[in-house]
Amino acid sequence: MVVASVDNLADERSKAQFDVGAMKIVWAGSKHVFDVTDRMARIVASDPEFRKDNRTTLGRKELFKNTLRKMAHVVKRANELRLTEEEASKLRFFVDEPGYLDLHWGMFVPAIKGQGTEEQQEKWLPLASRMEIIGCYAQTELGHGSNVQGLETTATFDPKTDEFIIHSPSLTSYKWWPGGLGKVSTHVVVYARLVSGGQEHGIYGFIVQLRSLDDHTPLPGIIIGDIGTKFGSGAYNTMDNGFVCFNRVRIPRNHMLMRFCQVTREGNVCLSDVPKQMVYGTMVYVRQTIVSDASWALSRAVCIAVRYSAIRRQFGSQDRGIETQVLDYKTQQSRLFPLLASAYAFRFVGEWLKWLYADVTERLQANDFSTLPEAHACTAGLKSLTTSVTADAIEECRKLCGGHGYLCSSGLPELFAVYVPACTYEGDNVVLLLQVARFLVKTVSRLAAGKKPVGTTTYMGNAEHLMQCKSSASSPEDWLKPSVVLEAFEARAFRLAVACARDISKFSTPEAGFAELSIDLVEAAIAHCEVIVVSRFIEKVQQDIPGDGVKEQLQILCFIYALHLIHKHSGEFLSTGCITPEQATLANEQLRTLYGQVRPNAVSLVDAFNYTDHYLGSALGRYDGNVYATLYAQALRDPLNDTVVPDGYEEFIRPVLKQTMRLSRL
Ligand SMILES: CCCCCCCC/C=C\CCC/C=C/C(=O)SCCNC(=O)CCNC(=O)[C@H](O)C(C)(C)COP(=O)(O)OP(=O)(O)OC[C@H]1O[C@@H](n2cnc3c(N)ncnc32)[C@H](O)[C@@H]1OP(=O)(O)O
Ligand SMILES: Cc1cc2nc3c(=O)[nH]c(=O)nc-3n(C[C@H](O)[C@H](O)[C@H](O)COP(=O)(O)OP(=O)(O)OC[C@H]3O[C@@H](n4cnc5c(N)ncnc54)[C@H](O)[C@@H]3O)c2cc1C
């Protein structure tokens, strides 16, 4: 059935004022990445084994088995097609189903690469890459997640046998949450308190075998299982997040990951000459990948909401003529276009963070640890900012799709349920922002001592100016000047950080001040992270960007991103005196103009994400716009529509009707 809605998207596409193909390359990062991504997405989309439209209707056991089947198929296809690591990881990505492979490749392997000695890497990495063992990452316990130093699991060295004894001393010490642990993994990197010679030496990673490689039963001393059903239908329930209790489980000494700390045959603990925080390296790595993933999740939700908003018509017609596309309503634009702009902003900051991470890793390998605090602050802060915004944005996109957004066939409820734990895992977002705040307060106090700030805090070196400057914006157009925008963001962030540092010093101890002012500190941390995102976006749009009109569109999105934040945080921009109420009004006026400019390009800007209908998984976001027929077809496929008269009629409907009839006769 061809319906009028299909034409809507073709019309929209014909209005584009830029080269969509060139934008696709910018979004992907390079022609090479585009080609790989496109090919892998199509392989997944065309393979019936990777069907996912029934996920929300399956019970937990069926759902999990279905995931196991898909994961096995991923491994088989990757081998058959002789995929490179880059290709295989894209293939897994487009399968779009959380499963043990994510933790095996995303955390177990990186933990060994980052924390293992060369010898240990030589032993374990080939086993892991051939998938002769399946691994996961167990740090969190029932009683402690955020507070890593509070972990209770012990790894006690026994010099008599040259082994570590891994032990869970209490219920609260059971490992709890690790993905892949519950039912699948054969091995785990466990984080535990190292004890040797009766003394504690801090938290380190240990490789422990969990299950027999012959029949998959748990090894002696190990009690293990799944922690139970999680939020949402389908969603993260494809993953076997698990618990494990270790009852004095013995492992060879060389199963401790010893890159940064060695325990000798005699039980002596030798720390290498590196900061102890290097043990947290896997978290830094994963946080960096989570920032990149945020732009994918956000762009996916935005793609659905933009396309549907172009299809959906409400009101505005006289005598039953054609109604207005909801995308034309300014209120819809003001909710949707900042999210579209944020998707691009996060994509670029994610790419930059990848670069930063690679740069820091290179320095660490050369024993230069100077950039470690900044890498920690950037990954923690941007992970927090981008995941919080993305989770809220997915929910906003659901509302932007009206009632149909609430249907599982819109793809949005499941996307939200899968995505929202990103605000918690790899570090609770508030806890991580407090880490950024700690870094900022330190930077401010170093400034006072005459030290020059570097990296993303370089702007703070301009302290005197940032404390005094008043924005020069005197027309809406002035808000299109990068220097005007940047100055406002930098001044707000700096003034908030300085106020926190000043107020902390009024308390009896810095710790007391930090605890009492933590609400302000979190706001200062967000403001600093927004400086990073805005300045990276501005940097991006100042580069040469090939393709007709591509740069112009990105400039529009960049200013939408910045100006919507000024609007959102106007209280802070005003109270810190960075802008006046009149300038805030001018910024808003400019924002409205920019919405008008993005409007004709909106559908093409989401087409540039190059998502397949399989990946989107949404009746509302289909490329061809055939929304209503698809909604109807999917409704008919619902298990409840298998029969016309429902199961339960005889037992539960008929007696009620009969009873009602009896009553009405009385
Ligand atoms: C579909 C395909 C997907 C593919 C992607 C695959 C990836 C899979 C993605 C998702 C699946 C979900 C998997 C989830 C896994 C997990 O959740 S694992 C568990 C993660 N847990 C956490 O993140 C815990 C959070 N807590 C901490 O990180 C720390 O405890 C802390 C909050 C940072 C506090 O640490 P601590 O108490 O030791 O520290 P402080 O006293 O506050 O600080 C001491 C100094 O150390 C500095 N510091 C802290 N952390 C780091 C670090 N990571 N790197 C460098 N430096 C660090 C801190 O700033 C202090 O410095 P200072 O003294 O100079 O101020
Ligand atoms: C889907 C999912 C997958 C996961 N996968 C893994 C995995 O593979 N491996 C693994 O080891 N772990 C995993 N985790 C666990 C995850 O890392 C932790 O849940 C996370 O680190 C948060 O810790 P928590 O649960 O202890 O939260 P808590 O720290 O208990 O947080 C509870 C509340 O307290 C607040 N809070 C805590 N400390 C402070 C503070 N200092 N100041 C102010 N507020 C504070 C938080 O903001 C939050 O609001 C996973 C979790 C989820 C949800």
UniProtKB/TrEMBL annotation:
Tell me which residues make up the Acyl-CoA oxidase C-terminal domain. Answer: 482-658
Annotated ranges, domain Acyl-CoA oxidase C-alpha1: 280-441
GO BP terms: namely:
fatty acid beta-oxidation using acyl-CoA oxidase; lipid homeostasis; long-chain fatty acid metabolic process
What GO cellular component is one of the record's annotations? peroxisome
Taxonomic placement: Eukaryota, Viridiplantae, Streptophyta, Embryophyta, Tracheophyta
Cofactor(s) of this protein: FAD
Catalytic site: E426 (proton acceptor)
Q: Which protein, by its recorded name, is this?
A: Acyl-coenzyme A oxidase
Q: What is its main location?
A: other
**Record: residues binding FAD:** T140, G179
